[in-house]
Amino acid sequence: MFELFSGLEAPVIVTLLLSLGFVLAFEFINGFHDTANAVATVIYTQSMKPRRAVFISGVFNFLGVLTGGLAVAYAIVHLLPVDLLVSVNTARGLAMVFALLTAAIAWNLGTWYFGLPASSSHTLIGAILGVGVANSLINHTSLAQGINWGKAIDVGLSLLISPLVGGVIAALIVLLLRRYRPTSNVHKTPFQRQQIEGRKHPPFWTRFMLIVSSMGVSFAHGSNDGQKGVGLLMLVLIGIVPAKFVLDLNTTPYQLERTRDAALHLQQFYNRHQDSLEKLLVRPKNTKPTGAYECQPLDTPNTVERLLQTLQDQRDYHRLTAEQRWSVRTDLLCLDEAAKQAGKLSGLTEADQSHLKNLRKDLTTTTEYAPTWVILSIALALGTGTMIGWRRVVKTVGEKIGKKDMTYAQGVSAQVTAGVSIGLASFFGFPVSTTQVLSSAVAGTMLAERAGLQMATIRNIALAWLFTLPVSMLMAGGLYYVATHFLP
Predict the structure, then answer these.
(1) Cα separation of 242 and 246, whole Å?
(2) What is the number of other CB atoms lying within 10 angstroms of the CB of residue 5?
(3) By C-alpha distance, which of 374, 356, 332 is closest to 245?
(4) If you ran DSSP here, which 8-state letter would residue 47 be given?
(5) DSSP secondary-structure letter at 59?
(6) Are 26 and 101 within 8 A, CB to CB?
């Protein structure tokens, strides 16, 4: 890790430290902001003591980041258009990172202070979209080019559908327990069990399921939300010290050969479908500011030639100059976008679609990566953040959603639903909100039990959900717009 500071001038080191601090601060705040989602039911049902529950939650958040992969990390990064990603090593790119992080941190702290279980994921995505919109306004380009709308729609749908699915599934689990275990102690509240039976803890298997599902939610939260921090940290490193991070310098000769082969196969694909692609991909007017780079899918054959000329017989990236590494990264990102656009051709067979998908995987294997120390840093920030600041939101989730006390069955149903849902989303690369999934699951169990909902709390949660996206967009976009006016 410390080798990244070698050879850097003092101003660059200060900028790098500030940037790393901003990302780690966001992840730390994300930890204590979202802790309640994992520990609210296990604490409320007295299955575990608060400090022990929070500590174990932090450990499982840490493990979730380490094993979560990078699918969600780069799903978030690619909300930004390719043209902005290939320019991230400029002062404008750094202003982008600072703007979106400042907006996300400010909104997260504000909602945490008022005890609202708002979504950190929602906040971050809104900030990224705000920067994309502001970038379009600054460069006088259409909003269609300012944001990767295809990816934004996918992410938006996952954020919209996941809480609805969570609420329905949790309610169904409660109804099934009511139907097949109507007299079980699982339907009692902690207060009822203590008053009637004089016992403090839930029944053994209920307690076991509550604890296991709580740890599952913590693990799933780490594997999903932790990746977002990894993606942001990589954006910072690529922007400030591009020579060391634009490409995975540990790429093996075999992986490099696969990358070259993928570029050649994509060139051949474009040559075979040249007429159809000319009709599909209309070359946009030159509306970019002077000197700005713009990817042109129709120039794919030339891009491939340039890439192959740079790589030639290279067996690793260490031998390339800093300028050559950035050129290779730019070409690979543009080729990935070209392969994505080619997939929109009508009449493609399943074999063609599979071929393009494999080409994209080989083209991005050396650009979509993260060093081990980056993942460890994010894991530590999220894990330690999890261990503090949990009381405010726990009270909202545990006591203020329903009009009646939460039963053990409701706690288990909500926790299991959230853990499985978020885990599957991480596996398939969908960034979802832990907060939204669990809160909706709790609400679903309350409706299933006909316990009623506290509309004041539901209204506050709904308003936080409703305003998170536009407010974070305005904050990040405004900060970015102002910052760019002070750049040369």
Answers:
(1) 5
(2) 12
(3) 374
(4) S
(5) H
(6) yes
